[in-house]
Amino acid sequence: VQERPLLLHNAAELVTVAGFFDPAAGDQMEELGIIQGGSVVCQGGEITFVGKSADVDGTVPDDYTVIDATGKVITPGLVDAHTHLVFAGSREDEFEQRVRGKTYLEIAEAGGGILRSVRQFREASSSDLLEGALSRLDRHLSWGVTTVESKSGYGLETSQEIRGLETIARASKAHCLDVVPTFLGAHEFPSEFRTDHDAYVQLLLDEMIPAVVESGLAEFCDVFCEEGVFTVDQSRVVLQKAAELGLGLKIHADEFSDLGGAKLAAELGARSADHLVRTSVESIEALAGSGCVAVLLPGTTFFLGHETYAPAREFIRRGVPVALATDNNPGSCMTECLPLMMTLGCIQMGMSPAEVLTAVTINGAHAVNRSHTIGSIEAGKQADLVVFDMPSYRYLPYHVAGGHVDTVVKRGAVVLDRSDRTDSQSGLT
Ligand code: NIG
Ligand code: FE
Question: What confidence score (pLDDT) does residue 59 get?
Fold first, then answer.
């Protein structure tokens, strides 16, 4: 928390995304609450004033720092609600194999894929894991992201999964970004259990989930529910156990086939269902009204070179709140660039520029159960803000991977400054 209060002054557009107690759904996703010529005051790590620049006088305490946002856009700090940022090594050779015609599944069957990352993870030192996570967080920050969700899931045995979650906790503590931890022990069946899937599920129930809960290192439990991985029934028992012990629920659902993962999310009251490329209209209707956020990951479809994207318009039309995230991971989407997901959301899924901004702010915050503190610019919320050097928020999806981040404020402190400004103190200039 920065000592000195901060005034971000006179933005061309102050995009507040304010007023959503529940996730924004349907037409609400277009309501950005823009203040033209807007200013924000931050004090003690919180937002204390939001309004017209002309009304700032008298609201700023003595001895404050001014950031002049004239001609620029201010948004809430972006929220990336689905990543796998604790991994070791990389899989660029598999990327090349895919480019040359092999599929993600063929590569996995030949010993690559998630299990290859599991081998790399188990061999990596804890300091290398931490270093990798921290450098990825730097990249997330460079795109204006101030909160990231991250899953474990490359350890696939109790002590290794705990090591993954410990790395998340350490990274969150050492870095200015916040990382929301999710246990994904049900990411794959480890090689030790290739021929006895039920035994691994039993291990998750009897040992892994209780140990994770005991450690206090996870807020959510996630399952990769997919053909060849965890069935709907296996996913159900894993998630039910996690819920019983107090974890929030997430699920990788309907990515390659309409297995029924989204319906299960609705049934169990999951906080989010993610991917949802193949989700049927019937399942979308089940999700609507369940309170579950659809976290769509268009970067994965793009990175895998697939043609069919998640049916975002169907979700929005039927009242399911949509968030967008990167899925940052070494196999199916190697990027930290959340604004690129906004571009893909518009071009490939027919979302509007306003909808994609809602999807990476307040709806992302809801997907990680942080909407009471982040995801919008409102007095009383944590002061997580981004100044973009662009005349309109529409540039975010429009200028592809444009890199317009000018300044990032986390809990009221400037944590990234790419402006050519020399900060003026105590008084408007
Ligand atoms: O979300 N779907 C499963 N897990 C990741 C892929 C992880 C990997 O290939 O290493 C995903 O796409
Ligand atoms: Fe994922």
Answer: 81
